[in-house]
Design a protein that fits this description.
- This protein is of the alpha+beta class.
- The protein has a single domain (27-177), classed as Peptide methionine sulfoxide reductase (Metal Binding Protein, Guanine Nucleotide Exchange Factor, Chain A, Beta Complex), CATH 2.170.150.20.
- 23% of the residues lie in helices and 22% in strands.
- It has four helices and nine strands, in the order H-H-H-H-E-E-E-E-E-E-E-E-E.
- It has helices at residues 2-20, 29-35, 56-62, 65-72; strands at 91-95, 101-104, 108-109, 117-118, 127-132, 139-144, 150-155, 165-168, 173-177.
- It has a six-stranded antiparallel β-sheet. A three-stranded antiparallel β-sheet has the order 2-1-9, with no helix packed on it.
- The structure holds zinc ion.
- Residues 95, 97-98, 100, 144, 146-147, 149 line the site of zinc ion (ZN).
């Protein structure tokens, strides 16, 4: 009888540790590349063009003050104020700084979080990731792979098929309508 109790306590302990551990970790790049739908690379087949490298002075001239704050200084627009939060027209979302095509309207959904949300980028090579430990949180920052501009963060509470939520700033995006 004692052995059974010890075994049960052990199982409960292991389960508890297992449940507590993953929530403390940010998503690794390896996790993300496994989760992102590989079919997304087939759409809009063309490869991403070469990187855009500019000085901060040049970016300041090209971008509006709001765009500069979010894209270059990793700022965040206030929740539910962005122009694409409740925007569901058919088309693509480009990087506001360099025109890199980042997301498609088919992968956009209403997460209710106050920022435009997508479950996958257009293709794996469109975005890059970095661990962000600011504000006492561990998050995964998402940046444009072409110009390095800050877009937002990715979380693991999104819908199928990836289970990811790319929580983006409207300011970092530029919508282009698709003719039907
Ligand atoms: Zn860009």
């Amino acid at each position: 009888m004692t052995k059974i109790i010890i075994a049960l306590v052990f199982i409960a302990g292991v389960t508890l540790i297992w449940r507590l551990t993953p929530s403390e970790q940010s998503l690794s790049e390896a996790d993300l590349s496994l989760l992102i739908n590989p079919d997304s690379t087939k759409q809009n087949g063309e490869m991403m063009e070469e990187k855009v490298i500019r000085t901060e002075e040049e970016w300041k001239k090209i971008l509006t003050p709001e765009e500069y704050y979010v894209l270059r200084q990793k700022g965040t627009e206030r929740a539910s104020t962005g122009k694409y939060d409740k925007h569901f027209k058919k088309g693509v979302y480009k990087c506001a700084a360099c025109d890199n095509v980042l997301f498609e309207s088919d992968t956009k959904y209403d997460s209710g979080c106050g920022w435009p949300s997508f479950f996958t980028p257009l293709a794996k090579d469109r975005v890059i990731y970095e661990e962000d430990r600011s504000y006492g949180m561990v998050r995964t920052e998402v940046m444009c792979a072409k110009c390095g501009g800050h877009l937002g963060h990715v979380f693991d509470d999104g819908p199928e098929p990836t289970g990811l939520r790319y929580c983006m700033n409207s300011v970092s995006l530029k919508f282009e309508k698709k003719e039907e």
